[in-house]
Specification:
Elements lengths: L1 H9 L5 E4 L7 H14 L3 E4 L6 H17 L4 E4 L2 H7 L3 E4 L6 H8 L4 E5 L3 H9 L4 E5 L14 H10 L4 E4 L17 E4 L1 H4 L4 H13 L3
Parallel strand pairs: 1-2, 1-8, 2-3, 3-4, 4-5, 5-6, 6-7, 7-8
Length: 216
């Protein structure tokens, strides 16, 4: 059973990775966006709640998991290991200032997904050594939802080449900019506003997925 789970993790489709944002949305609107996005082609969902109280985070994560489970989509929790364990999420994503990746791996075990943000070759290599399953690298363009410096596409390609695990491009990606990632050999694009703030999240997800598929 453990080997089957590990093989499933190894083969996860990271092509369209949604990071959530509940700002100015009711919980009902938030959950509807997630479901519509999955129907449009989202392959992984990460809940990112930097300011929500623990109880509120737990409740929205639990409700979100009902949706992702029904479509067999991995649900990743950003930073909050306690919430991830409480709802039995598919995995955890941590940044360079969060709990060290190796400690997170020791706690969640080998049967959960571990993602790590890495904007340099050195931190990417370190993340892989710490048994990360994938890396989120960027920002590709300036973004209001994440405070991060931009990296060049050439440098992104060097990060991809430096590791043997999937690299997902993050930061400021939209339907109009996906094509810029051509030849970087990334395994997916991570988006927030392009879906969460869309009037038609299903259509936006479909368009983003189509644009990404053109890169292959």
């Amino acid at each position: 059973m453990k080997e089957k789970i590990k093989e499933k993790i190894k083969n996860i489709d990271y092509s369209l990775y949604l990071v959530t944002n509940r700002e100015n949305k009711t919980n009902s609107e938030f959950l509807n966006i997630i479901e519509e996005a999955i129907l449009g082609g989202v392959t992984v969902v990460q809940i990112r709640e930097k300011t929500a109280p623990t109880g509120e985070f737990y409740k929205i994560a639990k409700e979100t998991k009902k949706i992702t489970d029904s479509y067999d989509i991995p649900l990743i929790i950003n930073d909050r290991l306690d919430v991830a364990l409480a709802i039995d999420a598919s995995g955890v994503h941590v940044g360079q200032s969060d709990m060290p990746a190796q400690i997170v791996r020791d706690i969640i075990g080998e049967e959960k997904i571990l993602g790590v943000s890495a904007a340099t070759i050195e931190t990417a290599i370190s993340a892989e050594k710490d048994s990360a399953d994938y890396i989120g690298s960027g920002a590709i363009s300036p973004t209001k939802t994440k405070d991060a410096d931009c990296i060049s596409l050439d440098y992104l390609k060097k990060i991809v080449d430096s590791v043997n695990i999937p690299v997902i491009a993050i930061g400021g990606i939209s339907e109009d900019t996906v094509n810029l990632l051509d030849k970087t050999e990334i395994k997916g694009i991570s988006v927030v506003s392009a879906i969460m703030n869309s009037y038609d999240p299903k259509k936006s997800s479909k368009n983003l997925k189509n644009e990404f598929n053109k890169l292959k």
